[in-house]
TrEMBL record:
Belongs to the ABC transporter superfamily. It comes from the Bacteria. Residues 5-232 form the ABC transporter domain. Pfam families: ABC_tran, DrrA1-3_C. This is ABC transporter ATP-binding protein. One of its GO terms (molecular function) is ATP binding. The keyword Transmembrane does not apply. Gene3D superfamilies: P-loop containing nucleotide triphosphate hydrolases. Keywords: ATP-binding, Nucleotide-binding, Transport. The lineage of its organism: Bacteria, Bacillati, Bacillota, Bacilli, Bacillales. The keyword Ribosomal protein does not apply.
Length: 309
């Protein structure tokens, strides 16, 4: 386990409002680590502290491999939440300019830029000015700018916002490739389905505090209770009386039964009433999206006082 970055005990206040409270996590080489949380949770503030755009009141940020020499800016790639490139400059010029700022050899940068433009369906756009690009195209160029210099640590803040599904797939594949080639990736996104498909580990925060930290598998095993979806005309009150059903949701003839923690799936199925109408039955764990909503709305997990994985 090769740790690239350690964030330890980060605290930050704006005036008298504490927005980061004892934030600690690490990002490892070759992994996609997601930083998640509701609006205002403190994700961007955490990222800005890592990038050295602002400084923490307390705590440390350590990039390993660099002998404690501070932030290795040339080895970091950053796609910020606030997008923006110089408008009246052409695509290749801006890409080369940004690569140059990272001390990356220009001939190599040009070669890689052409390769990535082709990969992202922007072949021939190298001489087009930024203002002529659509929003999605501009985002692709900015993404290319963040990876052109072969960063060892990459921060992606909402990389998928505004992208069509095909472009999302391209980004997903490229991000996965980068991780497979050893890049440590910190990914912030509100698109839980994509996070669930892509990330190896996740750090979820709320109101400046850690609520969940661990591998996707651990998190799902620990926090994602089972839910049972039954298609068939059944009476809601009756379903609610079934043992270990926490709550139900009904839509037409489909009912989703959210089950209590630690339910034993096989025995639970065995004890279902004989006269239940079942046209279809599915038993699976709740999604990351549902875990997120549970936490953000303080429905369930927060009350159980066991969130500090
Ligand atoms: N420069 C600032 N001055 C004062 N308050 C700030 C500043 N930057 C952020 N905040 C506050 O810090 C808190 C955390 O904000 P932050 O932008 O880090 O959240 P976030 O998790 O990135 O949210 P979002 O998902 O909406 O992007 C919020 O309450 C925000 O209002």
């Amino acid at each position: 386990m090769d740790v690239m970055l350690t964030v330890e005990g980060l605290e930050k206040s704006f005036k008298d409002k504490k927005v980061l409270k004892n934030i600690s996590f690490e990002v490892r080489k070759g992994e996609i680590m997601a930083i998640l949380g509701p609006n205002g949770a403190g994700k961007s503030t955490t990222i800005r502290n890592i990038m050295g755009i602002m400084y923490p009141d307390k705590g440390t940020i350590t990039f390993h491999h660099y002998n404690g020499k501070g932030i290795p800016r040339n080895k970091i790639g950053f796609l910020p939440e606030e997008r923006g490139l110089y408008k009246n400059v052409n695509v290749m010029d801006i890409l080369l300019y940004l690569a140059d700022l990272k001390d990356y050899p220009l001939d190599k940068a040009r070669e890689r830029a052409l390769m990535y433009l082709k990969k992202f369906d922007l072949e021939g756009k190298d001489k087009v000015s930024i203002e002529e690009l659509s929003k999605g195209m501009g985002q692709k160029v900015q993404f290319i700018a963040s990876i052109l210099h072969e960063p060892e640590f990459l921060i992606l803040d909402e990389p998928f916002s505004g992208l069509d599904p095909v472009s999302q797939e391209m980004f997903k594949e490229e991000i996965r490739n980068l991780a497979n080639n050893g890049t440590a990736i910190l990914l912030s996104s509100h698109q839980m389905n994509l996070v669930e498909e892509m990330c190896d580990r996740l750090f979820m925060m709320q109101q400046g505090q850690k609520v969940i930290y661990g591998s996707l598998d651990e998190v799902k095993r620990k926090y994602a209770n089972f839910k049972c979806t039954i298609h068939g005309k059944n009476d809601a009150a009756r379903l609610e009386r079934i043992d270990q059903v926490r709550r139900i949701e009904q839509q037409g003839d489909a009912s989703v039964l959210y089950l209590e923690k630690d339910v034993e799936p096989l025995s639970w199925i065995k004890q279902l009433p004989d006269d239940l109408v079942i046209e279809e039955l599915k038993l699976n764990r709740i999604s990351l999206h549902e875990i997120f909503i549970d936490i953000a709305t303080n429905k369930n997990l927060m009350k159980e006082g066991e969130l500090n994985a």
